[in-house]
Amino acid sequence: MSESIKTTFLYSFLTNSKYRILRHALLIVFVLIVISFNQTYITYQPNQELLGSKIYLLAFITTVVYIVIVYLNLYILVPRLLLKKRYFSYITILSALVLLLVLGMSAQEYIVYTLLDIPHIRSSYLNHVAFLDTISNFTINMLCISGGSMVILLKYWMENEQVVNQLRNEQIQSEVEQLKDQINPQFLFNILNRASTLTKSNPQLASDMLLKLSHLLRYQLYDCSRDKVLLNSEINFLSNYLALEKLYFDRFDYSISSEGDVHRVFVSPLLFIPFVQNSINQIQTQDRESTIQLHFRSDSGIVYFTYQPDNYEIPSVNELAGIRQRLEVLYNGNYTLSTTDGIIKLELRS
Fold this sequence. Notes:
Blueprint: H1 3-6, H2 9-15, H3 20-44, H4 48-51, H5 54-82, H6 87-115, H7 128-181, H8 185-201, H9 203-221, E1 229-230, H10 231-248, E2 252-260, E3 266-267, H11 273-285, E4 290-299, E5 302-310, H12 317-331, E6 335-340, E7 343-349
Parallel strand pairs: 2-4
Antiparallel strand pairs: 1-3, 4-5, 5-7, 6-7
Helix pairs in contact: 3-5, 5-6, 5-7, 6-7, 7-12, 8-9, 8-10, 9-10
């Protein structure tokens, strides 16, 4: 559900508990009372002078009956049947109640005219005209009372949609945090194994590998605990990561370039590593040389990232969908991710 809908008064009026009393007041005063009094006056209008003040008592009785049926529907039938998808039972019971309401109103009319010895308006209560009038009243009352159910159903759907979106965002946020907290175990094992092998043959290279690995781990342990990091720190992290991968698996080249003031702009940590990891995974499964080109540009607080793989495919639609989910949580729509001619472009707006 879009944020614009959540900020509307209608959404707040239907879902916010502080408007509960107002909702019920509007329902009783402007719907039930108005409908009840209007129906009573229409029914007894030809004999209004003979009824006198008794017409208000009849309107009050009609209002009470309407309130009982409406709230019976809202607090028993809707939560126990409609919201539990027992539609047939709900329609059957509500129809029976509305039919009883209509027949009760006809019976009330007959009793009132008989007890007060007032001439009946109808020649008969069992002819085809009375039957058609009953069907008409039943349909109108059914629509009015079930309309209240639709409001409850709409509120229920809105609340469920909000919960689902919140859970989805929490799940994606959890995935992002999990990505921050761990480094690929296979990558760690490979680097340590390679460094162990080089300890005797090339101790300087082994020392360099361990130093770069310490930079990676320190970045993940400390810098990534924050919501935002400097773009320059993220670029250094990617440089160390690719340098280590190249030392272990020397079948690719890479270049990382940047322009603009990358030392002052902030981005979410580990935002670009999925692109790089996808490249490395493909390179390790292919028996051919490849090149990875990463370019960063900062301009007026906007970060432009270009990812250009060479000699292999860009991430699949499903892989990009996962990246889009993370971007949606972290940047809430303030980004643009596109693919053109084998080049992935990402624009991040603060």
